[in-house]
Write a structure and sequence with these properties.
This protein is α+β, with helices and mostly antiparallel strands. Helix content is 29%, strand content 32%. The protein has a single domain, classed as 2-C-methyl-D-erythritol 2,4-cyclodiphosphate synthase (60s Ribosomal Protein L30, Chain: A). It has 5 helices and 7 strands, in the order E-E-E-E-H-H-H-E-H-E-H-E. It has a 5-stranded mixed beta sheet. Helix 1 runs parallel beside helix 3. It binds magnesium ion. Magnesium ion (MG) binds next to strand 1 and helix 1.
Length: 163
Amino acid sequence: MTKDIPFRTGGGYDVHAIAPGLPMWLGGVQIESPCGFVAHSDGDVAIHALCDAILGALALGDIGKHFPDTSEQWKGIDSKKLLSAVVALAAEKGWEVGNADITIALQRPKLAPYIPSMRGVLAATMGIDEDRVSVKATTTEHLGFTGRGEGCQVWANVLMVRA
Ligand code: MG
């Protein structure tokens, strides 16, 4: 038996394709854009990466295992509900989110004006203080599928601590 440690780190990564005429949800906030994310849920790729980071830290599988995209139950669902469910599952196992750091790669629109609200919404959804939630955004300098505006990529890292 390995010695119990009071911390766990986890990483998550997600990609969604971009298409015209769809809503764009990121970090629990709706972004003003003529394009949005192709998805079974509301397509909030930032929340999906964050959920995977939490699940990964606790070796509880991934978001696809807990909320299969073949299920009608999750069709069009507000991803904040998925995040609440993942945080509740972590709490059941005796863990809470220490901090989260999220990096969004999106060519357009510029996300800077939305970042304070994303941090607020994510922190409130996870039940932690806003200063424990970081959201960063970058373009990919027009390189690759992200740079061509075909998709959005998000990386999330979390530290989980014993509740
Ligand atoms: Mg996803």
